[in-house]
């Protein structure tokens, strides 16, 4: 989760151009911050597993908010950069998926507020809200990872990273996606077993 943004930082050299901030911010948002925010609830891998659920929820919230801010800034930078260079906006699969991932993340963060204040949703149980938030969060996370992977097919990335290194880079969001999917499915199965 941290290795991918670190590698992107070395490749992009943030500050060398306006564009250079886009890959770094998006890698930080979707590869590092969101991954860590979701792993907070893992009984096996969370660094905060000994803390109360309330503390873990607050850290999750803070990390997700930071991820959203990085993603919004990354989106703003690439949009402005394309405007300066007279290029079309959101004309590639990477651009469209990235836009959708950022918008989805914003919606998911707004949905997370409902878990902080469940009384706003009078006809829904807290358990249902948590299940829907986790499930839709997984969809959003996978969308973000798909956007990262499509970004690795861009001209900038494929001219910078070649051979086995490209495949290794592609494995990063793929492996974290599998870890997160496993965590969400285990949490769902655990809830099902505890209800019976």
From TrEMBL:
Keywords: Electron transport, Heme, Iron, Membrane, Metal-binding, Transmembrane, Transmembrane helix, Transport
Sequence ranges assigned to domain Cytochrome b561 in this UniProt record: 1-191
Descriptive protein name: ascorbate ferrireductase (transmembrane)
UniProt cross-references to CDD domains, sorted A to Z: Cyt_b561_CYB561D2_like
Cofactor(s) annotated in UniProt: heme b
Domain of life where this protein originates: Eukaryota
Major localization class: membrane
Source organism of the structure: Cardinalis cardinalis
Transmembrane regions: 20-41, 61-80, 92-117, 138-158, 164-184
Key word Electron transport present: yes
UniProt cross-references to InterPro entries, sorted A to Z: CYB561D1/2, Cyt_b561/ferric_Rdtase_TM
């Amino acid at each position: 989760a941290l290795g991918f943004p670190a590698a992107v930082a070395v490749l992009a050299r943030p500050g060398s151009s306006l564009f250079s901030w886009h890959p770094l911010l998006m890698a930080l948002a979707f590869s590092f911050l969101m991954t860590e925010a979701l792993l907070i609830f893992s009984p096996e891998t969370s660094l905060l597993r000994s803390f109360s659920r309330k503390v873990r929820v607050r850290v999750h919230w803070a990390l997700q908010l930071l991820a959203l801010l990085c993603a919004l800034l990354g989106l703003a930078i690439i949009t402005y950069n394309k405007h300066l260079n007279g290029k079309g906006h959101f004309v590639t699969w990477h651009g469209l998926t990235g836009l959708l991932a950022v918008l989805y993340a914003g919606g998911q963060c707004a949905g997370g507020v409902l878990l902080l204040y469940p009384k706003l949703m009078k006809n829904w149980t807290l358990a249902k809200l948590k299940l829907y938030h986790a499930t839709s969060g997984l969809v959003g996370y996978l969308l973000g990872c798909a956007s990262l992977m499509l970004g690795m097919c861009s001209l900038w990335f494929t001219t910078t990273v070649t051979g086995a290194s490209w495949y290794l880079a592609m494995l990063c969001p793929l492996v974290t996606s599998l870890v997160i999917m496993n965590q969400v499915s285990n949490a769902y199965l655990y809830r099902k077993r505890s209800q019976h």
